[in-house]
Amino acid sequence: MADGRTRRREDTRQRLFEAAVELIAEQGFSATTVDDIALRAGVAKGTVYYNFKSKTDLFEELLRYGVGLLTAEFRAAVEGLPPREAVAALVRSQLEYIRRYRAFAQLLLSEMWRTNREWQQTLILLREQAIGVIAETLRDGVDSGDLPADLDVRVASSALFGVGLVVAVDWLVFMPERPIEDVQESLLAIVRRF
Amino acid sequence: MADGRTRRREDTRQRLFEAAVELIAEQGFSATTVDDIALRAGVAKGTVYYNFKSKTDLFEELLRYGVGLLTAEFRAAVEGLPPREAVAALVRSQLEYIRRYRAFAQLLLSEMWRTNREWQQTLILLREQAIGVIAETLRDGVDSGDLPADLDVRVASSALFGVGLVVAVDWLVFMPERPIEDVQESLLAIVRRF
DNA sequence: GTTTTTGAACTGACCAGTCAGTTTAAATGG
DNA sequence: CCATTTAAACTGACTGGTCAGTTCAAAAAC
What are the residue ranges of helices labelled H in chain A? Predict the structure, then answer.
């Protein structure tokens, strides 16, 4: 299972992910060359094609991987919490996730609302996956009466997701010196009405 | 001033802007070719280079033009209004602007939080220009006591701008059937605490 | 007659993807 | 143990295609 080969390969894929996510967040997908990615990851170009079908495939797997992590954190964060606290926990975990994987968040922000790209379907699916966890939480809150009955769950959950993303990335890009607690507080204040 | 020649030229530039903004919003800057832009604008490739120094130059002028329009609308919207109404007017005019120039808004959303692109400086400057109008309005509100004295104007104005952008684009991309009044109301609800 | 646009041809840089060859980890077997 | 074999993992030069940007003569618009 964890023999030297698979370990080595996992390590290579990880390094390729990291290199790709940074470069694509900085420059965008098309402006990032496979040579760049290989160079930053410290591997040969051929290795990229040994590990991934194509540049696009690398990107799609990267999206799946990153959103998978986020979704898992969301699920862990709300586990067993009553609705209102669960919402606060969601906001907190989104912020922490974005601080940790800032480049990935920038990449999502850049690509999430585009149209007509080849990976668009993948991204819409992943978006629904992440927003789905938020929606479940809000739904529970509405059903249990903790949240207002007239709350439009679909709208509220996608707004929550989008607002968190943009506020967090804006924070990291333009006012990184600001402590995370402040940002948490501002976001929760904005969002407390849910 | 407005003779037939300059008018014709303005018209050509306008068509090039429109073609470019749509294509770049869909695909990103690098993936959009000058041939594409000329084709969609219904113009020869040579015309692009007669009217603009380069592809990058076209893009920068486009950013300046689009943000200039937004800033002008902001200014017109707050003209003579008391602070709290002015904030509502800002939100409303941002939404209407984004509905009208959806592709440009998508483009801003994609490019605004990137780093290391050639036009990054231009974009930061333009961002400050637009956010500046919001900040002035909030500042006035704080000074006159209509808004809480402890409001962090810098943070609040950039949050206001970012939240409006992401909520509006999300609306147009994922729930276009939803009436603008609903979205206005949700946004104002989120933002009313300012 | 001047400005603007056309359209086609051309150049040179750049880049995704390929593939024949090399290195490395681990399995085999003595 | 150590030597040999195997195939997985990686390498990097190379190819074929693409595209930004240039040029220009001729036409169209004013």
Answer: 4-27, 34-41, 45-51, 55-78, 83-100, 102-111, 120-143, 153-174, 180-191
Chain A residues with CB under 8 Å of B111 CB are 110
Q: Which nucleotides of C are covered by protein (CB under 7 A)?
A: 3-9, 14-20, 25-27
For the segment B139-151, the average pLDDT, to the nearest whole number, is 93
Are B114 and A26 within 8 A, CB to CB? yes
Whole-angstrom Cα distance, residue A128 to residue A134?
A: 10
**Confidence band for B191, pLDDT divided at 50, 70 and 90:** confident
Q: Give the pTM.
A: 0.92
- pLDDT category of residue B1 using cuts at 50, 70 and 90: very low
Q: Strand, helix or coil at B112?
A: coil
Which of B74, B179, B185 has the alpha carbon at shortest distance from B133? B74
Question: Nearest 10 degrees: CA dihedral of B104, A186, B122, B166?
Answer: -10
Residue with tokens 């207002």: A148
Instruction: Taking each helix axis as running N to C, give the angle between helix A102-111 and helix A83-100, from 0 to 180 degrees, rounded to the nearest 10.
Output: 100
Find all residues with CB under 8 Å of A2, minimum gap 6, and list them: none
User: Which regions in chain A score pLDDT beneath 70?
Assistant: 1-2, 4-5, 193-194
As a residue count, chain A comes to: 194
- Rounded Cα–Cα distance for residues A22 and A126 (Å): 20
Mean pLDDT of B96-101: 96
Chain A 18-37 residues in 7 Å CB range of strand C:
32-35
Residues B168, B171, B176, B180, Cα dihedral to 10°: -50
B89 in Cβ contact with B77 (< 8 Å): yes
Confidence of residue B5 (pLDDT cuts 50, 70, 90): low
Q: Measure the CA–CA gap between A180 and A183, rounded to whole angstroms.
A: 5
Kindly indicate the confidence band of residue B2, based on its pLDDT and cuts at 50, 70 and 90: very low
Strand C contact at CB of residue A3, distance < 7 A: yes
Residue from A87, A118, A155, A181 whose CB has the most chain B CBs within 10 Å, to mutate:
A155
- Flag whether residue B174 sits within 8 Å of chain A, measured between CB atoms: yes
CA of B52 to C1' of D20 (A): 13
